[in-house]
Design a protein that fits this description.
The chain is built from 14 helices and eleven strands. The chain has 351 residues and is of the alpha/beta class. It folds into two domains: 164 residues, Rossmann fold; 181 residues, Dehydroquinate synthase-like - alpha domain (Dehydroquinate synthase-like, alpha domain). A hairpin with a 4-residue loop joins strand 1 and strand 2. Helix 6 packs parallel to helix 9. It is globular and about 60 Å long. The model has no long low-confidence stretch (mean pLDDT 94). It is an enzyme of class 4 (lyase). Keywords: Cobalt, Lyase, Metal-binding, NAD, Nucleotide-binding, Zinc.
């Protein structure tokens, strides 16, 4: 399957990924090779990965899985481990895991010794089609998503769809939400295909989503304009995710589950403010609720979620900026929302 080329690196899939990894390491004079895993990828993915790699791994680094561990204290542990294990500026860090691990591993590599090389090997659908692509790295600040980080590109991203067999269906579905988003913001036909598709984990769908995200990132690598469209559903979705993570009385949501709700809500705002048709709005809602359980929002929950919007990374000059849809496949950025529309959006979601 053809690789996806970015400006400074490539995303390789299946057999090409294995060949690219071994070729890159054989021609690079790395002083030490570190592999970062969590308890899940150590048990389920590491044995597979070791058979793919010709060169020896010098040291294995391990962190605990889960968004609740994506914080600076975990980074401190990893920086200390790299230092204790004689890591230097010619070291390589390979990140074998989901979005939490590749985000954090990329950040640790980008800041250790002012930057060492890293390679992302995503093991969840979410990280394959989104988190490991585009160079965004970082950690959360408390329960606030991705507040600390840098944009820095990996040497390569290697996608092995066979790792998806190690996941439970809920984790896989979380990545499906991001794939649907790619269709909503850039490609109506892709949205139609995915929305009707029974199997969204085949390599061709993964490659299509990677290609859509890569195209956007190539045009706007530092998120000054177009790249903001990748945040559709994420302004409210991240606030929902943070609120549920920080509230012991609420079920913790996976990223895709939260942004699925966010895309329905922001779809409603698109209908009110940018002319998205009611037919398309209902199509979006029906599509997501076919695959994702509705989230129960009480009035107090909604107020708390709206308070979290002030921490969104796209904000500027005190304004909360939204990405909305003019139609399916066509997104616009930097839209201000009248406050009364938020409550109408939640009311539409709950209908």
């Amino acid at each position: 399957m053809e690789s996806v080329k970015s400006k400074s690196y490539e995303v390789h899939i299946n057999e090409l990924a294995q060949a690219a990894l071994n070729q890159h390491i054989s021609k690079s004079d790395y002083s030490r090779i570190f592999l970062l895993v969590d308890e899940n990828t150590k048990a389920h993915c590491l044995p597979i990965f070791k058979k793919m790699m010709d060169a020896p791994i010098d040291s294995l680094l391990e962190i605990k899985s889960g968004e609740e561990n994506k914080h600076i204290h975990t980074c401190l542990q990893l920086w200390q481990d790299l230092s204790n294990l004689d890591g230097d500026r010619k070291s390589l860090l390979i990140n074998l895991g989901g979005g939490v691990l590749t985000d954090m591993g990329g950040f640790v590599a980008s800041t250790f010794k002012r930057g060492i090389d890293f390679i992302n090997i995503p093991t969840t659908l979410l990280s394959m089609v989104d988190a490991s692509i585009g160079g965004k790295t970082g950690v959360d600040l408390g329960s606030l998503k991705n507040q600390i980080g840098v944009i820095n590109q990996p040497q390569m991203v290697l996608v092995f769809p066979e790792f998806l067999a190690t996941l439970d269906p809920r984790q896989t579905k979380s990545g499906y939400a991001e794939m649907l988003k790619h269709g909503l913001i850039q490609d109506r036909e892709y949205w139609n295909d995915l929305n009707q598709k029974g199997d969204f984990t085949d390599a061709s769908c993964i490659q299509k989503s990677i290609a859509i995200k890569n195209k956007v990132v190539l045009e706007d690598p530092t998120e000054q304009g177009l790249r903001k469209i990748l945040n559709f559903g994420h302004t409210l979705g991240h606030a929902i995710e943070s609120y549920c993570l920080d509230n012991p009385n609420k079920k913790t949501l996976l990223h895709g589950e939260a942004i699925a709700a966010g895309m329905i809500l922001e779809g409603y705002l698109s209908h009110e403010l940018r002319g998205l048709s009611k037919l398309s709005l209902d199509e979006i809602k029906k599509g997501f609720l076919r695959h994702f359980d509705p989230v129960d929002f009480a009035p107090d929950d909604i107020e708390s979620i709206l308070q979290l919007l002030k921490y969104d990374k796209k904000n500027s000059h005190g304004n909360v900026n939204f990405v909305l849809l003019q139609e399916i496949g066509n997104a616009v950025t930097d839209i201000k929302i009248p406050e009364e529309l938020f409550h109408k959006a939640f009311a539409y979601y709950r209908e």
